[in-house]
Amino acid sequence: MSSPSPAPTSASPDPAGPADPAPQAPAPRKPPRPQAVLTVVATQWLSPHLVRVVAGGPGFADLQECEATDKYAKLLFARPELGLVPPYDLAALKHELPAGDRPVKRTYTIRWLDHGTQRLAIDFVVHGDAGIAGPWAASAVPGDTLVLMGPSGKWSPDPTADWHLFVGDDSALPAIAAGIDALPSTAVGHAYLEVDSDAEIIPLDAPDGLAVHWLLRDGRAAGTTTLLADAVAAGPWPEGRVDAFVHGERGAMKALRDVLFKGRGLEKKQVSLSGYWAYGREEDTFQAEKLEPIGRILED
């Protein structure tokens, strides 16, 4: 059904028609996030596939303030042969260089950050020559440059929780270790950590009341097992309100989403849940898919 015509008004119509709207000023461009240019001071292999890079220097002062426990930063990696000097003007380089020659961003957890010594540590999972950040970390030596933006973060352990739950694979191990470090000595709960073998188990300074369960893939590819979801579904579930930190491969996180929300009836505010990577996906594809249905772990 058509809408009724508007009633006539007493005003005479403008023969020239309505005036063109005033031109809108372009929206101001957000200032670029500051980049901290740090220098590698040490590296340490924690396990056959996990290397820690410690970096610091005057650029430490350019880091953002972040009180969250799950501090994460955007690392910038530039192709050495191009001779780009940090901090990088990313906006200008977007117009000056083809996509394959621009610095690439990779998101990593800051394992620890010490304002006193002006140093931080980042743990990298390394699988041979695959990827960008892992091979860089595997070959890093003192004096190398590490460029990052951040850190940012949202989660810290809930001090009012009755118990704590940590769940994740190799990629989440640094963040979970930082979370465990932040617990009081009286904290209780469970941590389920998936790695390949006994050789990948690392020491954790966990409270006596936090039971740490190492789940071994035994040669199966990361991202192809149901170890985490199966363990949480079948494992003990203490009484009281839980605070859960659950991160890792996207498919595994979707399975855990169902265990925690459908099976255990948790509320979203009790759970920090996200995918750090996706099996069979390159990093850039994985990041792009975060905006698509396949990439969403939780609905808004």
UniProtKB/TrEMBL annotation:
The record's Pfam families line, in alphabetical order, gives: FAD_binding_9, SIP
Give the GO molecular function terms: oxidoreductase activity
Q: Which residues form the FAD-binding FR-type domain?
A: 33-158
Comp. bias regions, Pro residues: 15-29
Q: Which InterPro entries match?
A: FAD-bd_FR_type, FNR_nucleotide-bd, Riboflavin_synthase-like_b-brl, SIP_FAD-bd, SIP_fam, SIP_rossman_dom
Compositionally biased residues, Low complexity: 1-14
Q: Where is this region: Disordered?
A: 1-34
The organism's superkingdom is given as Bacteria
Q: Which PANTHER family match?
A: FERRIC REDUCTASE, NADPH-DEPENDENT, NADPH-DEPENDENT FERRIC-CHELATE REDUCTASE
Q: What is this protein called?
A: Siderophore-interacting protein
| Organism classification | Bacteria, Bacillati, Actinomycetota, Actinomycetes, Micrococcales
